[in-house]
Amino acid sequence: MEEFSHxxxxxxxxxxxxxxxxxxxxxAKAYGIIKLEPRTIELIQENALKKGDVLTxxxxxxxxxxxxxxDLIPLCHTLQITKVDVKCDLIKTxxxxxxxxxxxxxTGVEMxxxxxxxxxxxxxxxxxxxxxxxxxxxxxTLKEKTKTDLK
Length: 151
What we know:
- The structure is a single chain.
- By secondary structure, this protein is α+β, with helices and mostly antiparallel strands.
- The chain has one domain: Molybdopterin cofactor biosynthesis C (MoaC) domain (Alpha-Beta Plaits), CATH 3.30.70.640.
- The chain contains 4 helices and 4 strands, in the order βαααββαβ.
- The protein has helices spanning 38-45, 54-67, 69-72, 110-128; strands at residues 24-35, 81-91, 94-105, 136-149.
- It has a 4-stranded antiparallel sheet.
């Protein structure tokens, strides 16, 4: 059975030491959906919600969240992120969010990609809550993670 890397021999929380790992180009992609009422989708399309441009604000929130992940999740390492993409697209049933986070480092950026997707979705929820009481956030998923040796 594989051991948890964030738990020490004494059973206490442990931040993993990645100091001896070779830096690599690391990238992660995540995804999530928020289901909305048809009228809410129309309001977003028309940019008619009182709080402003929902999709743009959610994308900015996702970028900010990726950069602050280690402040939110206690055992995450602070990373030198080189790129964050957050794309919010209207779909028939709501909004889908796709994120991509990249860094050069000794540990992956999965948590940053997932955090970006989560916060983008929560931002949409916050901006639409006055007009839509049936919103559902779902399918927050890591789609891909890669690491490539530096050349």
